[in-house]
Structure prediction request, 204 residues.
Amino acid sequence: MTGTGPSESPWGAAPVGHGASRTDAHRPPWAPEDWHAGLVRGPARVALLCALCWTVLLGVTLVSGVVATALTAWRTAAGGGGADVASASASLVLVPFVALTAIVPVAVVGWPVGLLTAWLLRRRPREAEHVLAFAAVGAVLAVGLLPSWASGAWPAAGAAGALVALVGAGGAGGGRWWAGAVLRRRAARGELAARPGIAPPTSW
Prediction:
């Protein structure tokens, strides 16, 4: 191998000139600069993203319930009251309900919207741009799908709406970051070479 031809990337033949600064003899199977964030698109990869988004939402809900219970117990310990602690602890029972409820919007709405968002960003190579875009979309979807949480008087409604938007942004953005990390690890192990999938397009 003389190194005069185009280098090979984890998703198949790279464009002419890609990686030309290094010879093939010294080029590892995969390098960080080979990654293109536009590879996280298509039905299967967006489905992975949605599954990871749901996992993040479940984790955030569970951690929030545990923290709320702990803080309530700490506040009421000095007063000796246990009603608030019991009420906060009972909220943990809602975690499975919230998790099952979140599956429907994530699958029915999140998947097609994720496909569209990933396609629109297909020429953007940076992970940060994709994560921020998915976080923004998740925030909008969360508020749109849960309008009742932001109803009522303005101060309380604004706080509730901001909380819902924050959870949606964390779920979608966290899921997109996680999906990118998973696919980058697969590329590093050479697994994407056997399944070329989607070739990265030319950046804008």
Remarks:
- The chain has one domain: 37-185.
- The first helix runs from residue 43 to 77.
- The radius of gyration is 22 Å.
- Residues 1-8, 10-23 have pLDDT under 50 and may be disordered.
